[in-house]
Each structure stands twice: as structure tokens, then as C-alpha cells.
């Protein structure tokens, strides 16, 4: 643990103490905190103390802290501080954070705050608000450094000296023509190392990885990650430079998507409140209920298989067979879940190409057959010893051996088909696939049982 | 899609064509490829063509491509090119990539290649090999820029001009004393904006977020993500600067951990071959089989509940009850999976503190009760209509209403308990929790059935 981590733990209590005393120590304490740590500390404060903290922070620090707060605390601040103060803070924010904040407010509130901003800043933020939040345009900032292709290295450094305090990322310097078309890129390092009089066009790299403003944020994240970039320029379809997506926002996208995928995979619709354990019972239940109801109806398929077959066995036999229903359905579900996870990751990392459907299904069939043979033999042995009935042992062992390849094929097939249909393979995959294998495993189990026995002693 | 993506698709075919023709176009084609794209193209080439490509790449480009190849292709290259050529390439690699490569080889191979390196480079790489691969030390590079606190801004820029081509990241400049103790940090931007004669100690920031060399890579990733850093310095316990972890490696860590978690959650032990669909059947089955066998035995618990109760019902009643076993177990599993996913994400994002166990379990109980009441009423209605039996409808509806709160409490409790035991909550969570709820749901179902009826017509 770094010393900073210890401070995080102590922070909230110390802050409350200092706020109550209200002396000069508070200013010093606030000044030395990292905005993200400060955001953690103030989120839980009551309204009066929250206002007291923001009254002591300058607009710049307020802007940084506001950018790190959760949505709920942000809405409180906006309500408590009033439009003039909030306008000052928004003025100091990076344009992408400012647009995110205003996008969360009602159109009236947003309009009032935009009215407080300087014309140029207001125009930039207003423009950002037009992009879909989940696209490159929605997460880009307009604070980047662009230089004209006509400049020299020296002139570019001079330009940077003046622009730097404003630009979120100066690690890449973009070279444009008079109409803002993206021509090339330079690192700050390229500029410093080059002789001062070198024209930019001689040192710029012309192969620039870029994204379109309407590209999905997940794709943008993948590109930044693939090419190890610190930022990626965002262009329109005429290759005009619009903004920049920075690597810190890319990490946020990756984490956000991971959360959403994990919830979706477990049949919870991720929404604003999806993962929020602080909500009321109804807010927590709402994103889960539609799935539970849909899956309930799907489970009737498995039930109806048993219903169809139950007439074919006498009472004692069916009673014995029913003991193994959870084992059969459970193992099929487990096997399918494994296959699904391996294939979903394979698709995500690009190790499996979509056209390899048949190869994947065939491989899962063989893995399932191997796993089925081994677990089937074990189940045969245990059952025969437990129930003292060789025929029952044979039925359940054989059924499991047949069940696993079917389950694994389905588990492998599902994400590929879903992916090909253009749906995120994470959607409800776990509960969905186990519900499907509940059906297939019952069908296999009772078919094997009907073929091998109709009466057991 | 950017134009680069189109090139990726066309690349492999074009490369093969150019290799077969062997003309000057090939050199131009190779020169303009990004190393990661080139790595994708050459991975699948046969040995002779692979060697042909590397013979045409200079050591620098070879180093970049080698760093992006998968483990298997890297081993092939090392085998095919021989230690002298590989030594030249390793010499050109960043030290962290070089250490990663050598760490994959046999000690003899690694020793031979180390022997080909210049003494200084060999010593640095050798040192990196001592750190555990999953720690800050294991993923750091020693190519960073450090300047002495006695320098001025101008001197530091001069130092950088000379060191820059070697350093992986010059975006942060670290300030150290004569004994390499980390004192502060400067951005390149700070240096450029400052008047040339300013002493570094007046402009450096002294609050440096840093990590210890033995800190887990996942923690390092969380810190870089939390503080939006481009790199984090790695220090020993005397605060001496050892190296730097860069944000691109952090993204790799986040993706690697996401893959491992997803596989573990689905009861696949992630190993070197865990997610590798190119392996043989046995290599694919091995990380799954132990879990399938363990879960098979756990499923016997659910089976033995049915076995215990089956004597208490007549044949027809039990046959009817068995129709609803998959529905009962399935919905309990789905409900538990949802709760588990929400709590796992809550723990990961820090929204749920570990001490909140009771609050979480209580909330899940109420969510489960609400979900149970709604799905229970639906099941009651459908069953009564389907089977024309009000008592059976009551039994299954009530059992489901009781099942879901139990399942959701278990789903919420499991990751917290596991986390408190210091185990990664992802471990086999999906299949494990559904196996547990198979047991609890059978217990609830048959208890309710035994209480409400022993005979159904």
C-alpha cells in the first residue's frame, strides 16, 4: 500500500473533524488531496458540509472533484450551489467532462448553466452534447493540440507553450491543413529531439490511427489498447479532426463494459441502477424480473419433457430416475457454461474467428465426449454402488456421457450465433444456456432411460 | 472502420503473395505495417516464410513484432533464428519485453541469449527476471527518464534529448537524489512551460503516486486507473526508484485479469492453455475436468434430498412433482446468479464494502421475496391451468416464492464470504452457486410438498 492509500482510509474522518473546527488546517488539507480521493471523501457528506467543502475549493479543484463524483452527488452539488457557481466550475472543466455533466441534467438546467459560460466554451460543450454518449464523439475531448503543417518544430513548441495549460493531452500533437483535415501526428518527444527549423511535414508520421466520431466506444477502446496509444484522434467522414479520446477514458470504457457484460451475462439488465446496491428493493428487482419470468417459461420446456415421459415408467422407477434429475441437468449446465466462457473469451481476444463456427463446435463436441466419458464412468460407478442397481447405473452414466457433448456444443455455438446476429454474446448467457441444457439433458436422460429400461426393482 | 482495419484483413494474403514474389515491394510493405498488425499476419506463416519475413526486418522492427507475437510463435522464432540473431533482436527490445521473452525460455536458452547482449543490457534484463511475473516488478520497464534534483529545467530538457530515444516513456520525468530515492515528478509539459533556469525542485510535484515492486499487478492497474496516470513509478521499500509501469501494460493486465476471472467464474481453471482453442482435446478438457467432477459430487446432495423424500409420496404424485424439478432448480439458480453478479461487481467497484455483509444479504432477501412472489404467482397460475390441480399449483408457487429469497441470499453471501477468506470471488462462482441452489431448492420444494400434500390425483 502506498502512503496515499492510508490517507484515503483516514480522509473522511479527518475531513469531518477539520470541517467542524473550520480552521486554516482545512485549506491545507484540501489542497494536498488528489481530486479522486477528495471525491470519495465528500460523496457521503450531508448537504451543509458538502457546500462548505466546495466553498473552500477553487473552481479548478472543484472542477476536478466534480468530474470524479458519482452521478447522484453531482446532481446534489448542482442543486445546492446554484447556476452561477456551477457555471464557474463547468468553465474550468475539460470539455468532455463538462458535456458529461450537462448531459445528466434536465434540458432547462443544462441551458441555464450553458448561459453562464463564455461563448466559445459554451459552443464547444454544446457541440459535444450532440454526439451519442457511447460513441467516440461522446467520450472525446476538444482540448487537444493541433498545429498547421506549415509550421517548423520551433514554432510548434512555441504554440504548445501558449496552448498547453488548456489542452488535456499534449503528448500527441496533431498536424492539420488549413481546413482542419488530419494529416499527421507528432509526439512531444519528436518535437524536442528535432532541430528547431525542421518543417513539421518532414518529421510528422503520416500513418495515424484514428476513429470516426460515430464509432462505438468499445471499438475505440479496443483500438487504443491494440496499438498501445495514449490518445486517438476522432475525425468526421471527411477526415476533419474533431477531438481526441484519451487513454484514461478508454480504461473507464473498458471497466464500464466489463461491469455491463458481467451483469448481462447473469441476466441482469444493466441500467442506471443495475448494479446499485443502495437503491430500494424495487429498483434492484426491476432489472432482474423480466429475465426471471422469461427463463421461467423456458424452464417449462424441460418440465414438459418429464411430463411426456412419466407415463412410460412405473412409480418406483420414475421415483429413482427423478433422484438424478438435478445431477443430469446440473452437469450439463456446468459443461455448457465452461464451453461458453472459453468461446466468449476467444471471440473477445480474437483468438476465435467468427467463421470458425464448425471447428469450435466440433472441438467442443470432442471435449464434451471426453469429459462425458470420464464423468459418466464415475457416475455409473457411484450410482451402481449407492443404489445397488447396475441397469440404473448404466442409464445415468450413459445419459451423462451423451449429455456433456450436446451441452458443450450448445455452449460453444450460442455465443458465435449470437455474435453473428450482432447481439453482444454476454446477453444473459449463463442462465440462458443452463435453461437450454436443462431441456436437452432431460430429453437425453429420459430417452436413454426409456430405451434401456421401463421397470426397475 | 479505419483504413488500418481494412489493411489488417487484407494483410496476410498480400504478405504471402509478396513473399512468394520476393521483390522490392515486400520491403516497402513491411516498413509501413504497425508491429501489432505484422505480428497478426506472420503468426500463422510456415517456418520458411516466417524466417524470410524476419530476415527482411531490422532488429528494431523485429523487436517490436516479437513483443506482440503470441508465446508459441515467439518460441518458434527463437528456435528458427538462432541465438546470435535473437540476441540482436533482444538487444533492441524494451527491457520489460526482453525479460518477458527470456522468462518464457528454458534457463539454458535464456542464458545463451543473455550472453549475446551487451553487459549493461544483460544486467538490467537479468535483474528484471528476478521479480515475480504478476507483480509491479514483473511488468515494469527500466527504461524511464530520471533526473537529479540539482538540475535546472534547461539541463533536464538537454538530458532528455540525449536519453529520449531509449526511454519507453518520457511523458513523466522522475526527480531523484544522488542515491536514486524518488523525490518528485515532472511532466514533459511542466519542463517546456517553465523558464529554462528554474531549478527542478521548484517545479517538481512532490506527491508522487508510486507502487512497491512486490505489489500485485492487479493493484497496480487499479491505482493507475484510479489516478488516470500514464505511468506509475515502481520503488523498493527504501523508496529507491527501480522502474516504471506504463499504461499500455496496465490495459494488458486489466484484460488478462478479465479473461482469467471470466474463465474461473465458469469453472475453467485458467492456465497457459485455459482459453486456447487451438490446443488438442485433452489440453482443452484438462482445466475443466476437475471442476466437473467436483460439481458432480456436489450435485449428489440435491439428488439425495429427492431420494429421502420420494418414499413419502405415491407414484403419481411424485411423478407430477418431478415435472417441476427443473423449473424449481433452474429459477433458483438464475436468481442466485443474478445476485452474485451484482454483488461481485459491487465489490469490484468498491460500491459494497466488505463489512456490509448483513445489509447486502438482507437486501437480497427482500429482492428475492419480491421476485419470488411475482414469479410464484405466475407459476401458480400456469400450473393450475396446465394440470388443473389447485393444490399442485399452490405447492409449486409457494415453493418458488420461498426458493428465490434463499437463492438470492446465498448468491449475495457467497462472493462476500469468499472475498473475506482472501479468495478471488470469481472462482467457479456460477456453476458453484447453481449447484448449491440445486440442493436448497430441492429441500424447500419437497418440504413444502410434504407439508401441503402427500397425495394428488
TrEMBL record, chains A, B:
It is found in: Cell membrane; Membrane. SUPFAM superfamilies: CBS-domain pair (SSF54631), MgtE membrane domain-like (SSF161093), MgtE N-terminal domain-like (SSF158791). This is Magnesium transporter MgtE. Homodimer. The chain crosses the membrane at residues 365-386, 392-418, 430-453. Belongs to the SLC41A transporter family. Residues 140-202, 204-260 form the CBS domain. InterPro entries: CBS_dom, CBS_dom_sf, Mg_transptr_MgtE_intracell_dom, MgtE_N_sf, MgtE_transporter, SLC41_membr_dom, SLC41_membr_dom_sf. It is a multi-pass membrane protein. The lineage of its organism: Bacteria, Bacillati, Bacillota, Clostridia, Eubacteriales. Keywords: CBS domain, Cell membrane, Magnesium, Membrane, Metal-binding, Transmembrane, Transmembrane helix, Transport. It comes from Caldinitratiruptor microaerophilus. One of its GO terms (cellular component) is plasma membrane. The keyword Repeat does not apply. It comes from the Bacteria. Acts as a magnesium transporter. GO terms for molecular function: magnesium ion transmembrane transporter activity; metal ion binding. Its main location: membrane. CDD domains: CBS_pair_Mg_transporter (cd04606).
Amino acid at each position: 500500500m502506498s502512503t496515499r492509500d492510508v490517507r484515503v482510509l483516514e480522509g473522511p474522518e479527518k475531513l469531518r473533524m477539520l470541517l467542524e473546527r473550520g480552521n486554516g488546517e482545512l485549506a491545507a488539507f484540501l489542497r494536498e488531496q488528489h481530486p479522486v480521493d477528495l471525491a470519495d471523501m465528500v460523496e457521503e457528506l450531508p448537504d451543509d458540509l458538502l457546500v462548505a467543502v466546495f466553498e473552500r475549493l477553487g473552481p479548478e479543484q472543484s472542477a476536478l472533484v466534480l468530474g470524479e463524483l458519482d452521478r447522484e452527488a453531482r446532481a446534489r452539488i448542482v442543486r445546492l450551489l446554484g447556476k452561477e457557481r456551477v457555471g464557474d466550475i463547468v468553465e474550468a472543466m475539460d470539455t468532455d467532462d463538462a458535456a458529461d455533466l450537462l448531459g445528466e441534467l434536465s434540458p432547462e438546467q443544462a441551458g441555464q448553466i450553458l448561459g453562464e459560460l463564455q461563448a466559445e466554451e459554451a459552443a464547444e460543450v454544446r457541440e459535444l452534447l450532440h454526439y451519442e454518449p457511447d460513441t467516440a464523439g461522446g467520450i472525446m475531448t476538444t482540448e487537444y493540440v493541433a498545429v498547421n503543417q506549415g509550421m517548423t518544430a520551433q514554432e510548434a513548441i512555441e504554440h504548445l507553450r501558449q496552448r498547453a495549460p488548456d489542452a488535456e493531452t499534449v503528448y500527441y500533437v496533431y498536424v492539420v491543413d488549413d481546413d482542419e483535415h488530419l494529416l499527421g501526428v507528432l509526439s512531444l518527444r519528436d518535437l524536442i529531439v528535432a532541430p528547431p527549423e525542421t518543417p513539421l511535414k518532414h518529421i510528422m508520421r503520416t500513418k495515424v490511427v484514428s476513429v470516426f466520431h460515430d464509432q462505438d466506444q468499445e471499438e475505440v477502446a479496443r483500438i487504443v489498447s491494440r496499438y498501445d496509444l495514449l490518445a486517438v484522434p476522432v475525425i468526421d467522414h471527411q477526415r476533419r479532426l474533431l477531438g481526441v479520446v484519451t487513454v484514461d477514458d478508454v480504461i473507464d470504457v473498458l471497466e464500464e463494459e466489463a461491469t455491463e457484460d458481467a451483469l448481462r451475462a447473469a441476466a441482469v439488465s444493466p441500467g442506471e441502477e443495475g448494479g446499485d446496491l443502495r437503491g430500494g428493493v424495487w429498483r434492484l428487482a426491476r432489472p432482474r424480473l423480466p429475465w426471471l419470468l422469461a427463463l421461467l417459461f423456458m424452464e417449462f420446456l424441460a418440465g414438459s419433457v418429464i411430463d411426456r415421459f412419466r407415463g412410460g415408467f412405473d412409480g418406483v422407477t420414475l421415483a429413482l430416475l427423478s433422484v438424478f434429475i438435478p445431477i443430469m441437468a446440473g452437469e450439463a449446465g456446468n459443461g455448457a457454461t465452461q464451453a461458453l466462457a472459453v468461446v466468449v473469451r476467444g471471440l473477445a481476444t480474437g483468438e476465435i474467428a467468427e467463421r470458425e463456427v464448425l471447428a469450435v463446435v466440433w472441438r467442443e463436441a470432442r471435449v464434451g465426449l471426453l469429459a462425458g466419458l470420464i464423468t459418466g464412468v464415475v457416475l455409473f460407478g457411484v450410482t451402481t454402488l449407492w443404489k445397488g442397481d447396475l441397469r440404473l447405473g448404466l442409464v445415468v452414466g450413459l445419459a451423462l456421457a451423451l449429455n456433456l457433448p450436446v451441452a458443450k456444443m450448445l455452449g460453444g455455438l450460442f455465443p458465435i450465433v449470437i455474435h453473428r446476429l450482432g447481439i453482444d454474446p454476454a446477453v444473459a448467457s449463463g442462465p440462458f444456456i443452463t435453461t437450454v441444457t436443462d431441456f436437452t439433458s432431460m430429453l437425453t436422460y429420459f430417452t436413454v432411460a426409456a430405451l434401456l429400461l421401463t421397470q426397475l426393482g
